[in-house]
Design goal:
0% strand; mainly alpha; globular; single chain
């Protein structure tokens, strides 16, 4: 099974999109499963605010693990990560239409009514599974091979 399939399977098992991506990919870069699960929890449902989608924040964290080094402690080192992160974001928006969870889901997730409607319409199960797959495919394509 590929890491893309792993991410989708983890999402289907109940992990948040951010957790599924971190678990499927982050462990290749030294992040253990427990850490990945706890770290990704805070980014679910657009940081629980409907903001940046967890299927985008998870890959951004993995890109930091995969491409960042000691230089990440400096402004210049972090600036080097901006290129792949922006490239990921551009490709993600091209596939999903937005970086924001609420836009992707189609409901205002900051309100109880919007959250309830998203659940009633099964948007998290239907839309998010596709978005997790798309994000994982983009990430897999961007990661160093070997």
């Amino acid at each position: 099974m590929s890491r893309v399939d792993d991410a989708v399977e983890l999402f289907d098992q109940g992990y948040a999109c951010s957790q599924a991506i971190l678990l499927a990919f982050g462990t290749d870069y030294g992040l253990d499963s427990d850490e990945a699960t706890r770290l990704g929890a805070g980014f679910a449902v657009g940081m629980h605010l409907g903001d940046m989608c967890g299927a985008a924040t998870g890959p951004i964290m993995v890109l930091g693990l995969a491409l960042g080094g000691e230089s990440c402690a400096t402004r210049e080192g972090r600036a080097e990560l901006a290129v792949p992160i922006c490239a990921f974001a551009d490709r993600f928006v091209e596939k999903t239409g937005s970086l924001d969870c609420a836009d992707i889901i189609g409901y205002d997730l900051r309100t109880p009514e919007g959250m309830a409607a998203a659940h009633e319409q099964h948007r998290f199960e239907t839309v998010c599974e596709r978005v997790v797959r798309d994000a994982a495919l983009i990430l897999e394509d961007m990661l160093p091979r070997g």
